[in-house]
Design goal:
This protein is α/β, with parallel strands linked by helices. It is 51% helix and 12% strand. Helix 7 links the parallel strand 7 and strand 8. The longest helix is centred in the last third of the chain and has 23 residues.
Length: 401
């Protein structure tokens, strides 16, 4: 895949899913995958579809409280850091052609432990029911004849749900109802909604990204050095000027047209946040998914640290953000940290969860995993407020990317 190729707009379909009482309870996400088998292209198509369905539509409330059913390709399932959140709202499907290796079975176990529900096609379940039944929440039927009576009885005893797909007539609907299906999807019930995302470009390469990140966190880097790096990346240049001219930063109202002056107005902390976000979002389409996770964690760490005078909220933000930097840049963590001029407290927090920053990071991670047992301080209601504020900050920062 070319490093400089622009990404075409992504068109996807949301198929309404109803329950046995005709209530609209879920959506099934359908999107076009590349004709070839290049892993990068498959990841790119999936990233764009999920970015629209989960983060653009979901964050604006258009999905309401409905579940989202999505069948993910194996290259995506093999990258657990890319799984969309929240897990409680997602039903992850496995392709019927999947090869049931020990690695895939382990991935299925990990996803269910994290709270994802799994839907498997009846054809795949029939091949290895003993292995797959304990790892399945929903069985996908493309025909009423997909499963025999014995298998249906086993599914009922295990309290597994049935999803009936491609319902095209009243007769098919009645047959599925007689089987006790819990979910119903098909053109006979409702037409899908088609949604197109806006195109996004990709800029630069990983080596340039790391050089820029090094400069952002190097105490000896001056404004001139940052300017020299930024001017080589036109999308960053434009973004800095746009931000410096915003009503929040440009209180005088006089237009800022000079890059150096724009960088001075924003200041180092705002420059770090803006440049790092835009830089990482431009690496690969899949980076946008991980970047959102990293930003939510970073803002949550900053919010958790704010009440404590001995903790620098910006150090907490950096700790949360860099806890997923290895996944963003696809580089081994220790090797990456060795290249970056982060302070010792942040390094210890990232590597060993040591010190106050390590405690803040651990608390944020625990909340993400939806662990029931939490420390007494902060109380769960405070933790939830920190998390909701982090979501709002992330949406505001990524809204114009």
């Amino acid at each position: 895949m070319s490093e400089s190729r622009d990404l075409d707009p992504c068109t996807l379909a949301l198929h309404p899913i109803h329950d046995s009482e005709h209530r609209h309870v879920a959506e099934r996400l359908v999107y076009r995958q590349p004709d070839d088998d290049e892993s990068d292209d498959i990841l790119a198509a999936t990233a764009r579809a999920l970015a629209v369905a989960v983060y653009e539509l979901g964050d604006t409330g258009l999905l309401d409280e409905r579940l989202l059913f999505v069948t993910l390709p194996l290259p995506w399932i093999n990258r657990p850091e890319l799984l969309p959140t929240p897990a409680s709202r997602l039903v992850i499907g496995i392709d019927a052609t999947a090869n049931l290796t020990d690695e895939l079975l382990q991935r299925l176990d990990e996803m269910r432990e994290r709270g994802y529900r799994l839907q498997l096609p009846a054809s795949l379940l029939a091949c290895a029911s003993d292995v797959l039944l304990p790892r399945t929440d929903i069985v996908r039927l493309s025909s009423p004849d997909d499963l025999d009576a014995d298998t249906l009885s086993r599914l009922a005893k295990a309290d597994l749900a049935l999803l009936a797909e491609r319902i095209d007539s009243a007769e098919a609907l009645e047959r599925y109802r007689a089987m006790g299906c819990r979910y119903y999807d098909g053109h006979y019930l409702a037409k899908p909604d088609f949604i197109a995302s806006r195109p996004r470009g990709r800029h630069g390469n990983k080596a340039a990204q790391i050089r820029l990140i090094q400069a952002l966190y190097d105490e000896n880097t001056d404004l001139q050095r940052l300017q020299e790096l930024v001017v080589q990346m036109p999308h960053l240049h434009v973004a800095i000027l746009r931000r410096a001219n915003s009503s929040y930063f440009n209180r005088g109202g006089k237009e800022v047209v000079d890059l150096r002056r724009g960088m001075q107005i924003l200041g180092l902390i705002e420059l770090r946040r803006l440049i790092l976000t835009l830089t990482l979002a431009s690496l690969q389409p899949s980076s946008r998914i991980v970047l959102r996770m990293a930003l939510v964690r970073a803002f949550m760490c900053r919010n958790l640290a704010a009440p404590f005078p001995d903790l620098d909220p910006e150090d907490a933000f950096t700790t949360g953000l860099f806890s997923l930097m290895d996944a963003l840049l696809e580089e081994e963590r220790d090797s990456l940290l060795a290249k970056l001029p982060l302070n010792t407290a942040i390094i210890h927090a990232l590597k060993d969860r040591q010190g106050p920053l390590g405690a803040v990071l651990s608390l944020a991670e625990s909340h993400e995993r939806q662990i029931e047992e939490m420390p007494d301080e902060p109380r769960p209601d405070q933790l939830h407020r920190c998390y909701m504020a982090a979501l709002e900050s992330t949406r505001a920062l990524m809204g114009n990317l």
